[in-house]
């Protein structure tokens, strides 16, 4: 029906000689058809749509007493969890709101191919939509508070509140990890922390703030430009008091990312390598042809393989 109407209108337009009349008719047609198409797409009520779910996963809410935030926690269990008594490493991932599916499916495929061990994925998400998601990550992943007017103009509306990293790390250490380790079979001491952008910044913040909390770290395109390279200065302070850093680290940036991401990353990686921390295993990579966002699935795969490379038989 719709195709027939459009064909007749097309023939009508061809017969019109006045250019302005043609433009007017096309605009009129668009104004009439677009709402009709939208109504057609809305024929099925949203509450009647069956959502896609991740197999062997669940969502629980944890209300933090430390910062007063309610966190939806996405938990995905490996295939053998219900048929064995095995224990598993636990991957704590930030930005579960946007990347949980990628992490879970890649981890399962890599485990199936025996490139990494089976793992439990614990994704920390946030309530609300994409706007709240950006607000919350700016609040939780940044170690210092910066007034919005001091930020680049394009970020001012996205980062109205910042500086909550210490409380967020407290939530992970004192509320989330105890919950997970009280309810699931975990491998003691084998925790992974993964994050991208501001999440990658938080990964390094956690490494220097509480270096024994996680064994493995995956930091993707970390926003090390935050507060004039604060984390680079924190590493310098850390190096004066600590000569060991028992951790396995994988970090990368995309070759097509802006210099504001690449330069501070290269500086931090150079510093880490020069320290020769006892017990530290570090792999860094510039991912060719990748941007700030296309790097995510690429580095999730390479990051998991890298930090578990010594554990695969």
List the keywords.
8-stranded mixed sheet, 2 domains, 8 strands, Rossmann fold, alpha/beta, 313 residues, 44% helix
Largest beta-sheet characterization: 8 strands, mixed
Name of the CATH first level of the largest domain? Alpha Beta
Overall mean pLDDT = 86
CATH architectural name of the largest domain: 3-Layer(aba) Sandwich
Q: What is the string of SSEs from the N terminus onward?
A: HHEEEHEHHEHEHEHEH
Classify the beta-strand content into a percent band.
Answer: 15-25%
- Unreliable runs, pLDDT <50, ≥5 residues? 22-30
Annotated CATH topology of the largest domain? Rossmann fold
CATH homologous superfamily of the largest domain?
A: Alpha/Beta hydrolase fold, catalytic domain
Helical content stands at 40-55%
Rough outline: globular
Radius of gyration: 24 Å
Termini distance? Answer: 61 Å
The number of domains is 2
Q: What is the tally of beta strands?
A: 8
Q: Which structural class matches the secondary elements?
A: alpha/beta
Topology:
Elements (H helix, E strand, L loop, with lengths): L1 H14 L3 H23 L15 E7 L6 E7 L11 E6 L2 H17 L7 E5 L5 H12 L23 H19 L2 E11 L1 H12 L6 E5 L9 H12 L2 E11 L4 H17 L2 E10 L7 H13 L6
Parallel strand pairs: 3-4, 3-5, 5-6, 6-7, 7-8
Antiparallel strand pairs: 1-2, 2-4
Task: Outline the structure in words.
Helices cover 44% and strands 20% of the residues. The chain is globular, with a radius of gyration of 24 Å. About 3% of the residues have low confidence. Helix 3 crosses helix 9, helix 4 runs parallel beside helix 6 and helix 7 runs parallel beside helix 8. It has two domains: 46 residues; 261 residues, Alpha/Beta hydrolase fold, catalytic domain (Rossmann fold). The termini are far apart. The protein is built from nine helices and eight strands. The protein is an alpha/beta fold and 313 residues long. An eight-stranded mixed beta sheet has the order 1-2-4-3-5-6-7-8, sandwiched between helices.
